[in-house]
Amino acid sequence: MTGVGREPQYEAFADAFAEHARDGFYNAHYDRPACLSLLGDVAGRHVLDVGCGPGWYAAELVSRGARVSAFDLSPRMVELTTAQAPDADVRVHDAAEPLGWLPDGSVDLALWALGIEYVDDRVCALRELRRVLRPEGALVLSRLHPTGDWLRHGGSYFTTRVIEEDWAAGWHLRYWLAPLEQTCEELHEAGFLIERLLEPRPAPTAEVLSPDAYALLAGEPRGFLAIRAVPRPGATT
């Protein structure tokens, strides 16, 4: 298999995923706090939510005073986001395609949470995000932690490859497994500088929800990581 393709993989279970992600340990108490902390104060700022999923991020960003544009490849996810964040500008769009409706330098912040693994040409997509960002803007992205991926799947840590698997809920997915170095190099090639990198721990209040998951993620790199990257001065798109 040479890539993951452009099918909206989450379309088949969008509603189930929305319920899962609403208060789920990994999404609500692990990924979202990390990404929102890296975004910082969004009040009055134009935030682009890339691969917005069911809209939990978009709704939170709107509640914090942001002007939100959002898109997802899954039409059902777009419907769910529109319901969660009716004040956001939400549309069906593929992250692998140009963001033709957004002018150069029109976005203050871009968020790409747990989605970069589903794009084949990640450098091209990242370059387009850099194009729409203001020079003083920032991109926040989260991804599966590559060490956790490697511990689960084995093989060479440094081999970038496509994984195809069924998750616990029976959801069949294909995504790119890549070392951290690869993600850093792709950001560099796309014209970004990494400003911060977090290996999050679960929110302390989440321990009562799942003591086992809390203990695992508090002590091992088994979940996600989050990066804040800024446009590199002088880099061309």
TrEMBL record:
Q: Which residues form a coiled coil?
A: none
Q: Name one GO molecular function term.
A: S-adenosylmethionine-dependent methyltransferase activity
Q: Does the keyword Signal apply?
A: no
Q: Name one GO biological process term.
A: methylation
| UniProt entry keywords in alphabetical sequence | Methyltransferase, Transferase
Domain Methyltransferase type: residue ranges: 48-141
For the keyword Transferase, the answer is yes
Q: Which domain of life is it from?
A: Bacteria
Q: Which SUPFAM superfamilies match?
A: S-adenosyl-L-methionine-dependent methyltransferases (SSF53335)
The name this protein carries in UniProt is: Methyltransferase
Organism encoding this protein: Cellulomonas algicola
